[in-house]
């Protein structure tokens, strides 16, 4: 079976976040660029003058936004501590979707901002009213899954005169579930990901990251103070091979286990990566939904497994897709090798029901590194689960990668 021709991604109709804005136009297989290079945004944005607050938002196409956001709250990321959050809570930084701005909303402490915002720093006395050169605010972020960071977006949407002058970001890797105090201890070594760099207000400030290490936590600093609307940390999940070996059978395509979406026919309503997120979908936009097709084609997603695995059981869930669930689905698999283009059908075209989890035991285990889901003719699914275990070769490669990344 030959792979269907991809349908080009559409232009999103509404003003999006930095992350979704660039995701919609980024090439799906672009390689990350090497050194940490800031975007060109610096300085204040103009004061808000009414109308669409995103009209003068500054953003750019960034080559790493097709990767998974390791700081996605839905993957389990959390801002576990910050030294100050006087004006706005640190947790806002990891919310999915664009930051919201309502010019009329004020609370008892000031303007309600959809981001993490600290108070204004002051100097020591009347003769030195300005903050010292090294004064800064910090927040500690636990990644949703340990991984290698390829790019970071510090989104200052709506922070026009109160964004930080500069930011810096460092990463570390600690086992287990370290507390904020554990992370703040002197002996923790931090790898610089983004050196202290001036950034712009009301802008998607993007940084390519060159750090070939498996990281579990980030330290975000704003110099000397200010507000950050959203933090996106793009990269590749690096699962713990010891954990996967202990589990034995697990979901080979789950994001948290190192599975990923390689390409997809349609990104119109929701990203295909939703189909491999943890847990069951909770509403329609938590799954993957395509446009209504008016041609004779069909939609599809191509996935890469955590490593070479043996798939034994499959779940295709259409939860919350009721009038728009895929009509039929089929699954094909291929294994890396000389004939890597040969797809083998492992689940024949099968009728799907709306809002239903469908379970299939495969007649024989299927060894694969990639899987393609075809849905006919269009519509959506909420989750795909591919249960099985790693082959010996897959487990060995994963262990070697883990060691290479300092795990
Ligand atoms: N207009 C403001 O946003 N002012 C202050 N911030 C909030 N959130 O009120 C400040 O000092 O940056």
UniProtKB/TrEMBL annotation:
Enzyme class: hydrolase
Organism superkingdom: Bacteria
Gene3D superfamilies named in the record: Galactose-binding domain-like
Residue stretches of biased makeup (Low complexity): 17-40
Pfam families listed in its UniProt record: Allantoicase (PF03561)
Region (Disordered): 1-46
Family matches, as NCBIfam families: allantoicase (TIGR02961)
PANTHER family xref list: ALLANTOICASE, INACTIVE ALLANTOICASE-RELATED
The protein, known as: Probable allantoicase
UniProt source species: Streptomyces hebeiensis
